[in-house]
Amino acid sequence: xxxxxxxxxxxxxxxxxxxxxxxxxxxxxxxxxxxxxxxxxxxxxxxxxxxxxxxxxxxxxxxxxxxxxxxxxxxxxxxxxxxxxxxxxxxxxxxxxxxxxxxxxxxxxxxxxxxxxxxxxxxxxxxxxxxxxxxxxxxxxxxxxxxxxxxxxxxxxxxxxxxxxxxxxxxxxxxxxxxxxxxxxxxxxxxxxxxxxxxxx
Length: 201
Fold this sequence. Notes:
By secondary structure, the protein is of the alpha/beta class. The chain has one domain (2-199): 3-Layer(aba) Sandwich (Rossmann fold). Helix content is 25%, strand content 33%. It is built from 6 helices and 14 strands. The strands form 3 sheets. An 8-stranded mixed beta sheet has the order 2-1-3-4-14-13-12-9, sandwiched between helices. It has a 4-stranded mixed beta sheet with strand order 6-5-7-11, with helices on one face. The longest helix has 12 residues, at 188-199. It is globular and about 50 Å long. The chain starts with a strand and ends with a helix.
């Protein structure tokens, strides 16, 4: 069973449907108390960092999420669910994140010809092999939609980078924690393979 965190900000149903298409049972959970027994946790997210971290605190989901990660059980962060793991975000102000991963969230700098938000298909440059990428071809393309990206303090967590005006971090891995800026649930065959690999952990 995979538990998807419902804090009111995410394309929850599309993530759930992707797992169901793989024959994997996935439940959407909106109660903090129900997160405690999750075997595998997915934190998706679409929208503003400030609103997302505010809702996680309001719904008392912060500690269950932190406890799950600390327990060593598999955790998957998607898009905003990656950014929320960091210390601080500079999206429309300065907002404190979950502090699971040391680093910050910053906006793409404007450059001539650079489209912001970064939207569409782009390639992963794999720096650190991870079980989630097993069976996925080199130079595979995934689907992105974002204006901000993460800057980890430690290079050791970086699994992939992607080029869009700079070589930003597109996926991080640390033991049981996996998180990505792209949307596997929108990335067709390769995205489904990644989710299948997570379910198999």
